[in-house]
Specification:
The chain is mainly α. It has helices at 14-33, 40-51, 57-63, 68-80, 102-123, 128-143; strands at residues 55-56, 84-89, 92-100. The protein is globular and about 50 Å long.
Length: 144
């Protein structure tokens, strides 16, 4: 039983607010990325590789804060879709390097433009100072 003076208002919990925001972000990206045949989480992987192609698997997983087994499945699907390829690391036979394909490099600018458009849509609802604070708050939460 909840104490009498306790008010259970789910909309006040941070986790509920973040979940609601993430669902909106997810829906935006799903709609925009469907023409590329990729999901939002696959976009995260591709965006990271667009900044640093040929990353070691381990470094990519760390960079996007994803466990190895989840990343393996995502890379399997991206490889089947023709967006990435895996190659052995010539300097370390135990490592795998992840490279973008020509298809990914051709799609890259349009994919990144999608993220920029979303950022611009969000920025329209904030003053520049508010947006800077918003980004700093997100960064702090990420660092927890």
């Amino acid at each position: 039983m909840m104490p009498e003076n306790s008010t259970v208002e789910q909309h006040k919990y941070i986790c509920n607010k973040l979940n609601k925001v993430m669902r909106k972000v997810q829906r935006f990206y799903e709609a925009k990325l469907s023409s590329f045949g990729i999901t939002p989480v696959q976009f995260v992987v591709l965006a990271s590789l667009l900044k640093n192609d040929g990353m070691k698997f381990k470094d990519l997983a760390e960079n996007i804060d994803m466990d190895g087994s989840t990343l393996t499945g995502i890379l399997d699907r991206l490889e089947r879709a023709g967006y990435v390829e895996r190659k052995g690391d010539p300097e370390d036979r135990r490592s795998v390097l992840i490279f973008l394909t020509e298809k990914a490099n051709e799609s890259g600018p349009a994919l990144l433009k999608t993220a920029e458009e979303f950022d611009e849509e969000i920025k329209e609802h904030f003053t520049p100072d508010e947006f800077d604070v918003f980004i700093r708050v997100l960064d702090k939460i990420t660092e927890l």
